[in-house]
Automatic annotation (TrEMBL):
Keyword Membrane (UniProt): yes
Keyword set includes Cell membrane: yes
Associated pathway: Phospholipid metabolism; phosphatidylethanolamine biosynthesis; phosphatidylethanolamine from CDP-diacylglycerol: step 2/2
E.C. number: 4.1.1.65
Superkingdom as given in the UniProt entry: Bacteria
Modification(s) after translation: Is synthesized initially as an inactive proenzyme. Formation of the active enzyme involves a self-maturation process in which the active site pyruvoyl group is generated from an internal serine residue via an autocatalytic post-translational modification. Two non-identical subunits are generated from the proenzyme in this reaction, and the pyruvate is formed at the N-terminus of the alpha chain, which is derived from the carboxyl end of the proenzyme.
Name of the featured protein: Phosphatidylserine decarboxylase proenzyme
UniProt main location, coarse: membrane
């Protein structure tokens, strides 16, 4: 159940529920359903059945399950479901660093650790806030639609940068990146909005990627190749720089 408090000592109730479908799916599912019904009416079964399964696929793509988000200030949680495909030292995005005239500071210039999370069409595409705080920037950048799994997609694809700042000054930036099939980034937030950690911030339609920029002195707690869950998986712990190794098996 949403908004229920659960803990690591058994408090709360954990039951399985059908995930709700985000309203963004309604128009796509309706179009496919009408087309399927029309094909069935004219006895075009070879078209009606695939269109019927397409309706189910659209609903599955836009599913929006409840997530249990750790409530610990030192944790940075995953903003996206998917596969960790890149962990690199890069320059912080210019759009999150420069003075944008709003009177609020951006990220500090210099190298940061970037975690790239690739979302396939089978992953949940609702993105969530990695920390709680105030939205300081939402910067949309037009661009290409290359494979989101490529390194250069971070600089060349259509993307949207979001910067969230906590009351203690800790700021985390992340970027929603459109992919080869994705054609629209749908924001749910705007500058000035107050967010809780794990709160929904937007979605990207039909396959994409999210980059997260960790502050200096913080290393990932996830491994390259690891499958992670938005709003639940702890990406990093502020101020922790331990080396963690894993084995694929």
């Amino acid at each position: 159940m949403a908004n229920e408090i659960l803990d690591n000592r058994g408090r709360g109730e954990a039951t399985w529920h059908w995930p709700r479908i985000h309203p963004e799916a309604h128009k796509f599912a309706a179009i496919a359903a009408v087309a399927s019904a029309a094909a069935a009416f004219f006895a075009w079964e070879t078209l009606a059945w695939p269109l019927g399964f397409l309706v189910l696929g659209i609903c599955a793509f836009f599913r929006d399950p409840v997530r249990v988000t750790p409530q610990e200030e030192r944790f940075i949680v995953a903003p996206a479901d998917g596969l960790v495909t890149l962990i690199q030292q890069v320059e912080a995005p210019r759009e999150l660093v420069i003075d944008d005239g709003s009177g609020t500071k951006g990220l500090a210039p210099g190298l940061v650790t970037r975690i790239s999370i690739f979302m396939s069409v089978f992953d949940v595409h609702i993105n969530r806030a990695p920390i709680g705080g105030t939205v300081r920037r939402v910067v949309y950048m037009p661009g290409k639609f290359m494979n989101a799994d490529l390194d250069k997609a971070s600089e060349e694809n259509e993307r949207q940068h979001i910067l969230i700042e906590r009351g203690d000054g800790v700021a985390i930036g992340f970027t929603q990146i459109a992919g080869l099939v994705a054609r629209r980034i749908v924001p749910f937030v705007k500058p000035g909005d107050m967010l809780a950690v794990g709160q929904r911030v937007g979605l990207i339609r039909f396959g994409s990627r999210v980059d997260v920029y960790l502050p200096a002195g913080t290393e990932p707690r996830v491994l390259l190749g690891q499958k992670i869950v938005a709003g639940e998986t702890v990406l990093a712990e502020l101020g922790q720089t331990l080396l963690i190794e894993g084995i694929s098996q």
